[in-house]
Every structure is written in C-alpha cells, then in structure tokens.
Amino acid sequence: MIGRRTGLAWIVAGTALLGLAHAAAAQDKVRVGLAVSGFTPYAPVYAAQELGIYKAKNLDVELTVYRGGGAAQEAVAAGAADIISFFPPGVAIGISKGVKQKIVAGAATVTPQGWHILVPPDSNIRTLNDLVGKKIGITSKGSTTDFYALWAGKTGGGDVQGIPLGGGGIIPALKSKQIDAAVLWPNLTFRLIAGNEARSLIDLGKEMPPNLPEVWVATQAMIDGKADVTRRFLESVMAATVRMQKDETFGLAYLKKYTEEKDDAIVKLAYDSVIKGARTDGRIEVAWLRNAYQLAETAGIGGLPPVEDIWTDKFQPVKAE
Asked: How many CA atoms, within 13 angstroms, populate the side-chain half-sphere of residue 112?
C-alpha cells in the first residue's frame, strides 16, 4: 500500500512539474523593434524586462534595435517584428505601401522633448534659414529624424539634404564636419551641448506642436489575433514608466545604467524632461496625429491615408498594471 501511495505521489508531482514546465514554455513571444540604442524614451521598455514585469505578464519580449525608425518599419513589412516604436507619418507611408499595421498607443512625450537640431560649436549656421541646402545627419530615410530635418528645411524656407548615417554614425560625422547639422535625441543632445561639442540650433520640443514623436505600432495580425498579448505588452511598458516616475531613486539609477551616462546632472536633465513627462495611458488625440501629418506635408509628402485609418482606439486607455 505504501509503495502504491508513493508511486501515486510521484505521478502527481511529476504531473505538476510538467504543468509548470508547460506554463513556462507557454509565454507569449513578442518581437519588438526599436529605432536606436540608448534612447531615453526607451528606458522603460528595458526597465520592464529588468523589473520582471514582462515575465509577470507571461511575455517573452525580444527587443531588437534597428538603424532608425525606417529600418524598424522595414522589419514589420518583412514579418520580422510584431510591434515597433515609430512616428505617425512613417506609419502612414508604410500603410500606403501595403504594410498591415496600425498605431495602438502613444509612447513617451507628446512633443519631442530633448530633441534638438545641433550644429558644430563654431558653425556659422545661426538660424533655420542658414540651414537651407545644408547636409543634415539623420538615422535613415523615412525615420523621425528625417521628417524633422525636412520640416526644419521647409520652415527655414527651402530644402535640406538628409544624410542617413544610422544611430551610431551621426555624432562622428557631425564632429568631423562631414555634415553641417544633425537631428539628435535625448540624452545625446544634453551630453553634446553640456560638453560644448555641439550647439543647439533649435529645441524641437519647445518649437514644435504636439506631434507624437513616438507611438507604438502593431501589425494587424497582432491587433486582430493577439490583442491580449499586445495589451499586456503596452501595460508592461506603462507600468515600468510609472515605477520610474514614482521611485525617482530607481528611475535615475536605471536611466544612468541604460544610457551609460556618467554625468549625474545630464541623467537628471534627461529624467526630468523625458521620463517624468512621459504619459502612462498611451492616450492619442486625433489633433496630435493631424499635427504629425502637417509635418509630412511641410516636408512635401502627400497622398497619405486618412488619419482615422492609421490608428485604433482598441487599446485605449492603456492601464499601467
């Protein structure tokens, strides 16, 4: 009798272990594409991984950094990414070319906080008018940096030459003066300005209207077939953002680690301007999308699908749980 009971106990225990193994193996995989590395607004995306939030939501999140938003968009088109962070006009262009995707939530700040157009310290470029005809470093064609460069040219009264250099090639090109200016993001902007390695020509966060510089974009397959997985990913990122906002000690420490920034003053500046101001509900307003479209029109891009066709409110508001 004892032998039978012992055998039965082993069977029950073995079944339980198999159940646990199956649960672990059943994590939903999400392939997420990001435009550049060390980008301050992406810190919560990585923090969610370190805090175990993805795991708690039964997600296996694979993060891949591409050479700009345009390259991340190409990954979606090729079926290599499920969710990416991008800019509304870029999303619209992708949709017009047949890419099955939609914006599902806003990310980070409504205006491009911490984004600047930088020039060498001794540059004779003083206004946007001086920028016309000049070479501006961008990550890739069709990226957020590309749209901002084109907007700057049009605002200055003419065209500029966007030079695609990838996320890691812009600063060396600016320092060596292979380009005349560059569109850069936090906290690279803070670091270069503080070190007198570059001068701000224009603070885009202050000069531009709300235009959603970063939005979360999901494939139609994710929206239709894996809506719960999409929702859990968005909730995870928002939850990590809330944690970084409420626990400033953790937020600053993690941001310093993620960006590999040694100067605490620059980390604090990036934290105050980007992380503290980041939205945690993924809210999108049509007016903000229309502002983004106006940027595309200013850059000479037309024929985009109606604003209503590039996003869905299915996931709004996102609950930071």
From this structure: 26
